[in-house]
Amino acid sequence: QVRFVESGGGLVQPGGSLRLSCVASRFTFSNYALSSFDVSWYRQAPGKERDLVATISSAGGTTNYADSVKGRFTISRDNAKNTVYLQMNSLKPEDTAVYYCNAAGPLGRTPYWGQGTQVTVSS
Description:
Structural class: mainly beta
Shape: globular
């Protein structure tokens, strides 16, 4: 059983910053460690679909971002700690959502989702 634990969310004013953390506890999936998987952050606003926000490659050398967050968010990882981070700067009200992380390999995402962490951007 893989468990993702997201933290670091909160209430922030527009233009503010937050750093989210995702810890994958005791991660072993398909007999591989987290270091063999891409990791992504997703977000879901009330009444909307869950959208991909950012992805980082297994070794951390390649990152991709949704157009809506390019230049404002930075994804990073520490494989020794089984932890992935999302630094969010210049936050906008449109960023308000519950943020989740998950890992993916050739067969897709793991079937496990954490509780997420709430980010609220409001003046």
